[in-house]
């Protein structure tokens, strides 16, 4: 109980720091630091920087400068390590700037990594694998439980648990997910297969839906029929699969939609893997 209270307090402190760093007053209170005095964070949770997005940011920096300060912490030799804002720092270098606005905060290793992870998650800058690795590091190095992690980042416990399961996938499958060739729904489906790598390659080659992938992972040769009592309308199959995928990605659980005997009736099935997921789903349905 004491650990949870301590972590919740730390989470609130980081949230306040996030609000301060992104507030309109931040620019006025920022210090301008030479780019040469700033170093990247070697434990930055984000590993991939999209070329197209960086090019757009460089163009913006050239035209308008850096409008929002980066966040740094003092390190050895009078230099400063980036806590949040590495993309702005990189873009400033490419744009030919000599200095950049920065907020300086004395953060320890744990606080700095937590802040970087939360800031990236809130901006949707991390892919699923980067987010999962960040959770694992916070849990192993700083003693966070899954419940504490969920509390700090403002996500459900089932979300944290589902992402951590991705770390059990073979490296080849993790690479496909990180590169965007597999969705998180597909990755969770192939995890149950005897050969996740082979099934992942088939998913990409044949463009299989998440539902079809789940069926193949369970050992079936072909996807099961949508409803035992009535066949789906011929024109609705692709639309239903798209809807299933959208719903599954939103709630993090497999979803099946089956049409009934008429075009306006049917059923919606959600499969959960644990009581925690069921509790979370019931809470969400209850508002």
What does this structure look like?
- The chain is an alpha/beta fold.
- It folds into three domains: 153 residues, Conserved hypothetical protein from pyrococcus furiosus pfu- 392566-001, ParB domain (Alpha-Beta Complex); 56 residues, no CATH class; 62 residues, no CATH class.
- The chain contains 14 helices and seven strands.
- It has a five-stranded mixed sheet, with helices on both faces. The protein has a two-stranded antiparallel sheet with strand order 6-7.
- A hairpin with a 5-residue loop joins β3 and β4.
- α5 runs antiparallel to α6 and α6 crosses α8.
- The longest helix has 21 residues.
- The radius of gyration is 23 Å and the shape is elongated.
- The N terminus is likely disordered.
Number of helices: 14
Output the structural class: alpha/beta
- What is the name of the CATH architecture of the largest domain? Alpha-Beta Complex
Question: Taking Cα atoms only, what radius of gyration do you get, to the nearest Å?
Answer: 23 Å
The parts where pLDDT drops under 50 for at least 5 residues are: 1-12, 220-235
Measured distance between first and last alpha carbons: 27 Å
The ordered H/E elements are HHEEHEEHEHHHHHHHHHEEH
Rough outline: elongated
Helix content: 40-55%
- CATH topology name of the largest domain: Conserved hypothetical protein from pyrococcus furiosus pfu- 392566-001, ParB domain
Strand content: 5-15%
What number of domains? 3
Mean model confidence by pLDDT: 76
CATH class of the largest domain: Alpha Beta
Function: Involved in chromosome partition. Localize to both poles of the predivisional cell following completion of DNA replication. Binds to the DNA origin of replication.
InterPro entries: Chromosome_partition/occlusion, HTH_ParB/Spo0J, ParB/RepB/Spo0J, ParB/Sulfiredoxin_sf, ParB_dimer_C, ParB_N
GO cellular component, one term: chromosome
Domain ParB-like N-terminal: 31-121
